[in-house]
TrEMBL record:
Molecular function (Gene Ontology), one example: ADP binding
Coiled coil regions in record: none
Cited InterPro entries: NB-ARC, NLR-like, P-loop_NTPase, TPR-like_helical_dom_sf
Segments forming domain NB-ARC: 33-191
Pfam families listed in its UniProt record: NB-ARC (PF00931), TPR_10 (PF13374), TPR_12 (PF13424)
Protein's organism: Rhizodiscina lignyota
Protein known as: NB-ARC domain-containing protein
Length: 627
C-alpha cells in the first residue's frame, strides 16, 4: 500500500492534541466518516496532512488517498490519479467516468484491504449531493462508498457540505484558531530569526487572533523582507489600518497548500468562501458585508433585520419610483430591494454564514460576532465587489440612527447604548466611502446622518473624549453644509449642535458659554419658533449663565420668558419646569427679593414631594433650601 498525499510532512507542525484525539476516537469505529470544519486558514488541511502520516506510520497495510474536492473537475482528477496509482488504468488513457467507477469498485472490495481517504476543501454542497449540471453522471458522493474497511476524513469551510458527506452533525469536529501558547510556538518555528522578544511574539499572534495561516504568512513576510523588516516593524505596520489589507493579501510559498484552488494569503483564502456564498446565496453575502461595517463583536440582530431600509428610502433618483435609473441601480448593487427581506430569508442567510464558520452566535441567539481577519477580509472584498458599497454604509446609518436617540434614559450609560456606540464608530470610520460616492442621497438621509453622529459626538464629549467628539461634530456640520446648503434647516440644526457640543468642553469660561448659549437660542428660535418648548430650555440655560456672570436682571427676563412658555404648554408637571423655577428663585434671592424666591422654592418642594415622595433626596434638598 502507498499514499497519494501530495504534500511533505511539516517539521514545524504544532500538535493540536484535542482535535487529533477526537479523530482517533472516532476512527476506532469501522467505516468512520469525520469532518474537520472551520474558517479558511484555520489549519484544517494541515491537520489532515499530519494525520495521514500518522496513520501510515501506525498502519503500513493501509492505503492513504488524497482527494481534492474544491470542484467536480478536481475531484475527478484526483480519482484519475488514484486509478493510475492502483494500476486500474493508464494515466494517459484514463476517462473521468471510467476512473470514478473503477476507483469506487476498488474501494468497495474488502479484498483490497483497508484504506483512508482525505477529501480536502469539500465546500460545495451541490457538487456532492446533486447531479452535475454539465453531466449525466451521478453525484460525487456516490463514488465514496460506506464500507467497514474504509475511513474518510473531510476538511470543509461549509458545515452543511461536511454533514452531507459524513452523514451526521455528530461526526463534525469544529476547528477553531489555535490557543495563544500554540500560536506563539508556531510563529517562533516559522521565523528565520528567533531572537525576538517573547512579548512581541505574543502581541502579534494576539493581533492575528491565533489564525495559523495568518501567522505563517506574517512569518514568511518578515523572513522575506529581513533584515529591514522585524517583528516590531511588522506590528507597527499591522496597527495601521491602511496597511493591514496589503499585509494580509501578501502571497508566499507554502509547499503544503494546494495553490491551484486556494491562496496562501489569508484574505484571499477567506474570500473564496465569500465567493462561494455569493454564488449560492447573494443575500447572505450582502448580510456579511453589512455585518463587517459594525464592530465585530456583539452585533445585535436589530441592526440587521428589524428595520426596513431600501434604496427608495435613501436615494433621490430625480424621477418617479421605478424609473430606469432606479431599476438600474437596484440591479447593480444587489442591496437595494424594494421589499423587506422576510424573516425566513434572514434566518436562512444567518444559517449560511454560521455554516461557513464566518460568524458565531451567542447563547441567547440575539447577537453575532466574527473573527477580526474575517471582518477585515469581508470589508476588503465588499469594497472591491460592490460598486455601490456606499449604499451599505448608508443603510447601516439608517439602522443605527433610531436606536441611538436623545431621549434614551440615562443617556449613554447603559450597556446596550455603549454597545450601539461601539458599532457606530466603525461606521463613522467608513464615511470616506460614503462621502466619495456620487450617489444622490436624499435630504432625509443626511438628516439621519447628522443626527446619528451628533449623538455619538455628544457621547464622546460626555465620556471624556472632548477632542474627538468636537472634531466629529464639526466635520458633520461641514458635510451637511456642503450637501444641503447654508440656509437648509438641517444645516442650521447641525451648526446648533456644534455650539452645544462646544458648551460641553467649557469649564469655567462663562463669557464664551454666554456667547454660545445665545447662538443656540437664536438657532432654536429660527428652527422651532419663539414659543416652542425647546426654545424655553435654551432660554433657561442662558438665564443660568447670565446669573453666573452677575447679570441678574437680564437673566431674570430670560428665566421668566422660559417659565411663561413652559407653563403655557399643556403638559403635566415637568422636571424642566421645576429646574427653571429653581434657577429663577436663586436669581431673585441674589436681588434680595426673598419673598418671591420662597414662593417658587415652596412650589417646587410641594411638587417634588408629590412626585418623588418625602424621602427622596431632591425633596429633602428643596425643604432644606426652603428652611
Amino acid at each position: 500500500p502507498g499514499s497519494t498525499v501530495p504534500f511533505a510532512r511539516d517539521p514545524d507542525f504544532i500538535p493540536r492534541d484535542d482535535i487529533v484525539g477526537e479523530i482517533d476516537r472516532r476512527r476506532s469505529v469501522a467505516g468512520s466518516r469525520i469532518a474537520l470544519v472551520g474558517t479558511g486558514g484555520v489549519g484544517k488541511s494541515q491537520i489532515a496532512i499530519e494525520y495521514s502520516y500518522r496513520v501510515r506510520a501506525e498502519q503500513n497495510d493501509t492505503w492513504i488517498f488524497w482527494v481534492y474536492a474544491a470542484s467536480r473537475a478536481r475531484f475527478e482528477d484526483s480519482y484519475r490519479t488514484i486509478a493510475s496509482r492502483l494500476g486500474l488504468v493508464s494515466s494517459s488513457k484514463a476517462d473521468d467516468d471510467q476512473s470514478l467507477s473503477l476507483v469506487h469498485r476498488w474501494l468497495s472490495d474488502e479484498f483490497n484491504g483497508p484504506w483512508y481517504m482525505i477529501i480536502d476543501n469539500a465546500d460545495d454542497n451541490a457538487a456532492f449531493t446533486w447531479e452535475s449540471e454539465n453531466s449525466d453522471g451521478p453525484a460525487l458522493l456516490s463514488f465514496v462508498p460506506f464500507v467497514p474497511h474504509g475511513h474518510v476524513l473531510v476538511t470543509s469551510r461549509n458545515n452543511s457540505a461536511a454533514v452531507a458527506i459524513v452523514g451526521s452533525h455528530k461526526e463534525v469536529v469544529k476547528v477553531a484558531p489555535m490557543n495563544p501558547d500554540s500560536a506563539t510556538m508556531l510563529l517562533e518555528k516559522k521565523l528565520a530569526y528567533t531572537a525576538e522578544e517573547e512579548n512581541d511574539l505574543r502581541r502579534l499572534v494576539e493581533a492575528l487572533e491565533c489564525m495559523p495561516l495568518a501567522i505563517v504568512q506574517a512569518a514568511a513576510y518578515i523572513n522575506r523582507m529581513a533584515p529591514r523588516m522585524t517583528l516590531q516593524r511588522y506590528l507597527g505596520a499591522f496597527s495601521d489600518q491602511a496597511k493591514v489589507d496589503s499585509l494580509l493579501s501578501s502571497e508566499f510559498v507554502d509547499l503544503r497548500r494546494d495553490r491551484t484552488s486556494t491562496s496562501n494569503a489569508v484574505v484571499k483564502t477567506l474570500q473564496l468562501s465569500f465567493e462561494q456564498i455569493n454564488r449560492d446565496a447573494p443575500s447572505a453575502a450582502n448580510l456579511l458585508c453589512m455585518m463587517s461595517l459594525f464592530d465585530r463583536q456583539a452585533i445585535q440582530d436589530v441592526l440587521l433585520c428589524d428595520i426596513e431600509v431600501t434604496g427608495r428610502d435613501i436615494l433621490n433618483y430625480g424621477g418617479p419610483l421605478g424609473s430606469t435609473n432606479q431599476t438600474a441601480m437596484s440591479d447593480n448593487t444587489g442591496v437595494l430591494g424594494s421589499e423587506r427581506v422576510s424573516e425566513d430569508a434572514f434566518e436562512s442567510d444567518l444559517s449560511t454564514l454560521i455554516a461557513y464558520n464566518l460568524i458565531t452566535v451567542n447563547e441567547s441567539g440575539d447577537t453575532f460576532s466574527m473573527h477580526r481577519l474575517v471582518q477585515i477580509s469581508a470589508k476588503a472584498w465588499a469594497v472591491k465587489r460592490q460598486s455601490n458599497y456606499a449604499v451599505l454604509v448608508a443603510i447601516s446609518i439608517i439602522r443605527l440612527a433610531p436606536l441611538l436617540n436623545w431621549e434614551a434614559a440615562d443617556f449613554g450609560a447603559s450597556a446596550s447604548y455603549k454597545s450601539l456606540i461601539a458599532h457606530a464608530l466603525p461606521v463613522w470610520n467608513s464615511r470616506a466611502i460614503l462621502l466619495g460616492s456620487q450617489l444622490p442621497f436624499t435630504e432625509s438621509f443626511w438628516t439621519e446622518y447628522m443626527s446619528l453622529f451628533n449623538r455619538v459626538a455628544w457621547y464622546l464629549l460626555a465620556r471624556g473624549e472632548p477632542e474627538l467628539g468636537l472634531e466629529m461634530a464639526q466635520e458633520v456640520s461641514t458635510t451637511i453644509r456642503h450637501r444641503l446648503g447654508e440656509t437648509n434647516r438641517v444645516t442650521l440644526w447641525s451648526e446648533l449642535r456644534i455650539a452645544e457640543a462646544l458648551l460641553l468642553t467649557l469649564q469655567s469660561d462663562f463669557e464664551e458659554a454666554e456667547r454660545l448659549h445665545r447662538q443656540v437660542l437664536e438657532g432654536k428660535e429660527l428652527l422651532y419658533g419663539p414659543d416652542s418648548w425647546t426654545v424655553s430650555i435654551a432660554m433657561s440655560h442662558l438665564g443660568d449663565i447670565l446669573y453666573q456672570r452677575g447679570k441678574f436682571q437680564e437673566g431674570e427676563r430670560y428665566l421668566r420668558d422660559a417659565l411663561r412658555i413652559q407653563r403655557a404648554q399643556v403638559v403635566p408637571v415637568n422636571f424642566d419646569v421645576m429646574r427653571t423655577m429653581l434657577l429663577l428663585s436663586s436669581n431673585l434671592d441674589s436681588q434680595d427679593r426673598q419673598a418671591e424666591a420662597l414662593e417658587l422654592i415652596s412650589s417646587v418642594a410641594t411638587t417634588r414631594e408629590k412626585l418623588l415622595g418625602e424621602d427622596h433626596r431632591d425633596t429633602i434638598t428643596s425643604k432644606i433650601n426652603l428652611a
